[in-house]
Structures are given as structure tokens and as C-alpha cells.
């Protein structure tokens, strides 16, 4: 049994699978581990939300598979490796290495096409589309994979369904921290893809296959900017980050964006931030329902979206209240990536936090999805900022020195 880390899971499958294939498949404990035990280890050590993602594996059905795998499925897109987009660890048939791949379900194309030739053409077109669309990703991602399959149509389907990913040679598997960082970065790309499925998975695929231009930017912006339904149930599950294992030196290099790509990225980041603020606004109002201040006013009616009413320069986003009717200032930081993802804070926000350290709170929303009734977050008080975070200066104001 591997230790509780991703590297050991990959190593044990690479080292044992060929030997186990000589044993009976039915009732085999190693096949069970690939389906259940190892996916659970990956979920735990990589902090993958079981509410949002399904992590499961396969070593075959009725007999040993030529290419075993462990998949991570965003349940808003798919719950199966047969259809939709997912991240998957694909083990080369001779166990010489393993790919981590942003991939798509081959079975869907096979069943939805007239023949195998059309299915291959369609899935290739979609893979190529997303490689071009997901601009700004690292050059080190590979666009083709070779699973060394002999006769497995399903294995060949994985090769055609591959969008981008990385390869790890059996004799040179990276350390566990690097593997987790690679997965986190690929998860962010996966979420970027899912955010662009504005017409749904099947309709978007049909548009891509038929070479119909998708004007996703304007439509997506409208969708993202759409306010929350007032009757929607809103809840935040706050976690204590002191009890969550954080991997040191987590660092994601910023991809280089140019022209329209850069403008779209900035616009989408701003819209995601707005979504998070609106979500917290409704959460605070819901939390304060039934409570009144000393003048008898409903506290929920006093909650203000300050960054929208007064602008971004105030130093916080939401004016809210505690149960005693005392005002609190909330700065909202939102990501659709994992809990370890860094965020930016302005000098003005830090100064305001220091001046109001006992009334200032950062709400960090992560793995965020506006459509979920419940999202995850952690909360840091102003007085705890410097003890909790590494604050890294990334830009400087430059002025010409006065002459002497």
C-alpha cells in the first residue's frame, strides 16, 4: 500500500500493474485499489473537493485494461470518463510512464458519429480547438501522447481525446510537491475550459465540430455578470486553514498573454471577483436576517456592497455587521482554483486593514462556482494577516529622484 501521497500512488501502479495482470481479474485487491483506494488518496493529499469533483479509477471491466487510469471529473460537466472533459492519469500500456492529461470522453464521440473515422475526426477537431483556445498555457505542456496500445480502441481514443498535459517517465517521477503543483495548474486550465462551455457541453461541441464560430466572450460576460437569483439559497462553508496541509513554496508562474487574450483574461478575472462579492453580499444579508440594531433597524437591510456604491478605492468590498450590530469590513478574494492559490492585495487594502484590524476580514472564496448553493472559503481577520500570509511585493512606484 502506498503512502498517503500522489507520487507513491503513481509509482505503485507503474511497478505492480504488469505483474498483477498475470493474476485473475475478478476479486483482485490491486484492481480494487485502482478503482477506489488510490483515487481516495489522491483526493485527500491534493485537497480535491468531493462535492465538486468525482475521482475514480479503472483497471478494466471483466478483464485487465491495457491502459489503467485515474480520472478527476468536474461534476458540473461530467461524472464519467466516457463523456465530457476531465483530467486523467493515463498509464502507458508497458508501464514505462504515466501522463496527466486534460482529456475528453471517447465513447461519446464513438456513439455520436456515423463511423469510427468520423469519431476520430470530430474528437481531433475538438482537442485542437481547445489547445488553441486555452491560450497562455505553459509551452512545456505536450499536445500528443503515445500510450503504446496494440489493439485497444479505447486506448487509442484516449490519445485522440488528449488536449494537453505532461508526461512522467517511470525512472524519473518528480517529487510529490511538484506533482501536486502540476495537477493544481492543470486544474486551473480545466476550470477555464469549463467556464467557456456557455452553451453546455454537447451544444458547444457541435458548434466546434461544425466549425461555427462561438462568440463566447460577450455571451459569457453577460452570463457572469448576471446577478444572483434573490430567492437562491446562499451558504459559505468556512474552513480553518491551520488544519489544512499547505504545501510550501507553492508557486504558479504567470503565463504571458498578448492583445485580446490579455484583455479577455483581465475582464474574466474582474467578473469572477464581482461574482464572489455578490455571493458574499447575499450571504451576509441571509446571515443577519431577523437581527436588529439598537435603533430597531434590520441589520440585513444595512449591508452594503461598498465597492460598487463608492468604488474600488475604499479598501474593502462589503460593509456588514456582527450579531451585536457592530460594523465589519469585508474584503472578498475569489478564485475558481484551489485553496492554495495566491491572491493579490493592494497597499490601500493593507493600510485599511491595519487601521481597522479588529473589524476587517478577508473572505477567501476558493473552488468557487456561483451556481452552487454552498461554496467554500476561509476567513482571516485584519490583525492576523501578517502572521498568516507571506506578503510578497511585486510592483513598485517609480519616480525620478530630485536633483541634488
Outline the structure in words.
The protein is an alpha+beta fold and 404 residues long. The chain has two domains: 6-209, 2-Layer Sandwich (BirA Bifunctional Protein, domain 2), CATH 3.30.930; 218-388, no CATH class. 38% of the residues lie in helices and 16% in strands. The protein is built from 13 helices and eleven strands. The chain has helices at residues 6-20, 29-45, 106-112, 116-133, 153-161, 176-195, 201-209, 216-225, 259-287, 299-302, 306-309, 347-355, 385-388; strands spanning 53-58, 69-74, 85-91, 97-104, 164-169, 235-238, 304-305, 318-321, 327-334, 360-366, 374-381. The strands form two sheets. The chain has a six-stranded mixed beta sheet with strand order 6-11-10-9-8-7. β3 (85-91) and β4 form a beta hairpin. 32% of the residues are buried. Residues 250-260 have low confidence and may be disordered.
